[in-house]
Write a structure and sequence with these properties.
Length: 139
């Protein structure tokens, strides 16, 4: 796991994935092309994940879905922990270029009640702008 110095005025993105090349590539992109603070972990279980979120207190969580990870399960945790309720969540998938952006995911009775904003990314800069909150949907 990459551990970074204490939080400054920079936005902090926490990447959770399966530890595959897909995750590594996104971390490399974000650390080389932005001033975002990036930390990451391989998802293992709920308790470990929540402890990391509590410790790192990120501004956004980027879920890298390569196929075996269950983004819906991770998003359901947003309602179970007070620190996660105000976070943005972004789901990036290996198999397509559609990004799901959840402003504030809400899960009630085990069901996700927040619909994602689906964004088709055309370049790495689109993903970076989504994470920086600078994405404006083209009309």
């Amino acid at each position: 796991m990459l551990v970074l110095p204490s939080k400054t005025s920079q936005e902090h993105v926490f990447l959770v994935g399966e530890g595959l090349l897909f995750d590594e590539s996104i971390v490399e992109l974000l650390t080389l092309e932005t001033n975002l603070l990036v930390s990451r972990a391989i998802y293992s279980d709920n308790l470990a994940f929540l402890k990391i979120i509590e410790r790192d207190r990120p501004d956004a969580i980027l879920i890298c879905d390569s196929g075996a990870l269950d983004p819906a399960h991770i998003l359901a945790l947003f309602s179970s922990h007070p620190l996660m309720m105000g976070l943005r969540a972004v789901v990036a998938r290996l198999d397509n270029n559609v990004i799901d952006l959840y402003a504030k995911p809400i899960c009630v009775a085990g069901k996700l009640h927040s619909r994602p904003r689906r964004i088709i990314v055309k370049s790495s800069h689109d993903l970076i702008n989504i994470l920086r909150r600078k994405y404006h949907e083209q009309q």
